[in-house]
Amino acid sequence: MRSSQEINRFLACPTPPEWIVAASVNQDILLLDHANCEKKAAATALNLMFQYGDRDPALQENMSRLAREELRHFEQVTRLLRKRGISSRPLGAARYAAGLRSHVRKREPERLIDLLIIGAFIEARSCERFEAVAAVLDPDLADFYRGLAAAESRHFGLYLALAEQRGGASVSTRIGEFAVFEADLIRHPDDSFRFHSGIPAQTA
């Protein structure tokens, strides 16, 4: 498991205070979008299995375990939604993941390396936000998010290790480039509040 200090060094900027304030007053949206994020994380792991598994058995095995854990987290969040009487409703996606993927290179193996680096950034930002937002949530939800932060830290370490193993010395340069892309998405306003949004201009 990677430490909070290592994750904070990996990210080029902290979550803006405005996002934390928005999270504290929009906990229904926070939880609904968090559930969506867990489903998407599982789907990402499965997609990597199908796209690269035949050529990369180690990647396939790691992504299989990761997909199962992400789905368990999805189930935990949905139980929490039911407990709190929060009805499911569709939410538009934040621009975060699509913004990162817009920089993915087309050729292989560069494409796979970029996707693994993006996975590391998404998991690192999730871990950082779980810890940041716990300070302004009710005790039950704060404890839940602190518990998930440890898992997100492991996921970050997995994606980063897989990228480093497949990319060699050039990975550090590419990580630095994605750190700039990721920080730009986090620092700039988004039309609506989501788990991975930037500074929220609205809340729905």
Q: Which overall shape is indicated by the principal axes computed on the Cα atoms?
A: globular
Strand order of the largest sheet: 1-2
Distance between the termini: 34 Å
Topology as a string of helices (H) and strands (E): HHHHHHHHEE
Number of helices: 8
Question: How would you explain this protein's 3D organization?
Answer:
The chain is an all-alpha fold and 204 residues long. Helices cover 72% and strands 2% of the residues. The protein is built from eight helices and two strands. It has a two-stranded parallel ribbon. α3 runs antiparallel to α4 and α4 runs antiparallel to α7. The longest helix is centred in the last third of the chain and has 29 residues.
In short:
The chain is mainly α. The chain contains eight helices and two strands; from the N terminus they run H-H-H-H-H-H-H-H-E-E. The protein is globular.
Structure characteristics:
204 residues; mainly alpha; two-stranded parallel ribbon; 72% helix; globular
